[in-house]
Write a structure and sequence with these properties.
Number of domains: 1
Mean pLDDT: 94
Family: Belongs to the TrpC family.
Helix content: 25-40%
EC number: 4.1.1.48
Order of helices and strands: HHHEEEHEHEHEHEEHEHEHH
Number of strands: 10
Shape: globular
CATH topology: TIM Barrel
Protein name: Indole-3-glycerol phosphate synthase
Strand order of the largest sheet: 1-4-5-6-7-8-9-10
GO biological process, one term: L-tryptophan biosynthetic process
Number of helices: 11
CATH architecture: Alpha-Beta Barrel
Largest sheet: 8 strands, parallel, barrel
CATH superfamily: Aldolase class I
Structural class: alpha/beta
Enzyme class: lyase
CATH class: Alpha Beta
Radius of gyration: 17 Å
Low-confidence stretches: none
């Protein structure tokens, strides 16, 4: 069983438990259902945008604890001040130390910034959760979903006013895309082995249809690689560990973005 298999198995148990605690109707009663979501797509395509989607996470299966003292409000505000185009907040607790509390803190502190709920989405219920806790975008991992389920989740997200980022790692997974998807992310980290290669984005870039905004995810540790990725057509760059492993993630983000100018 791969790490992704383990994560998905655990996630199905979590989803069942969440459904037993909180109904969809209760989620829809959240004040966040009344707000207009921010567009990550528009933010990435804006003139002069850094393209950086700065991620808040405290641990991962491959690295263990990354930053156990990190505070979501403080760091995400610093990310935005540094020039990040968007934010990504982990909500998986068991494997990544994430939480809806962190998402809520980031949302409250950054009302105008698009926020991605980073989790392993397998059920429409999770999309209601995302909307209820203030997310603007959801992540769908192609490897975890059939083409039919990916379409079902995409349509539910669009119904609820959220944008959809589909993550792929191979040419075969691109066949699962549908026209309703907003953004396509290439994960440079193999979710089966957790090995990282930024060239994965470069290799797949020509295979991603033009209507989709391209995002490169994971393993981006130096500003120089952004130039190559931009040449390959990428508008977004999801970066977490590079910032979070430092004593001051906000400062690390600013220094990184300053070098892009």
């Amino acid at each position: 069983m791969t790490i992704l298999d383990q994560i998905n198995e655990n996630k199905r148990t979590e989803i069942a438990e969440a459904k037993s605690r909180v109904s969809v109707e209760e989620l829809m009663a959240s004040p966040y259902f009344k707000r207009k979501p921010n567009s990550l797509k528009a933010a990435l395509l804006a003139e002069g945008a850094s393209g950086v989607i700065a991620e808040f996470k405290t641990k991962s299966p491959s690295k263990g604890v990354i930053n156990e003292t990190a505070e979501a409000s403080e760091i995400t505000v610093a990310y935005v001040a540094a020039g990040a185009s968007g934010l990504s907040v982990l909500t998986d607790d068991h494997f990544f130390g994430g939480s809806f509390e962190n998402l809520a803190k980031a949302r409250f502190a950054n009302p105008e910034t698009p926020i991605l709920r980073k989790d392993f989405m397998l059920d429409p219920y999770q999309i209601y959760e995302a909307r209820a806790h203030g997310a603007d975008v959801i992540l769908l991992i192609a490897e975890s979903l059939t083409k039919e389920l990916l379409l079902e989740l995409t349509l539910k997200a669009k119904e609820l006013g959220l944008e959809v980022l589909v993550e792929v790692h191979s040419a075969e997974e691109l066949e699962k895309l549908n026209p309703q998807v907003d953004l396509v992310g290439v994960n440079n980290r193999n979710l089966k082995t957790f090995e990282v290669d930024v060239q994965t984005s470069v290799r797949l870039s020509k295979l991603i249809p033009d209507p989709f905004v391209k995002i490169s995810e994971s393993g981006i540790s130096d500003p120089e690689s952004i130039a190559q990725l931009r040449t390959a057509g990428f508008k977004g760059f999801l970066i977490g560990e590079t910032f979070m492993k430092t004593d001051d993630p906000g400062k690390a983000c600013k220094e990184f973005i300053d070098k892009l100018k």
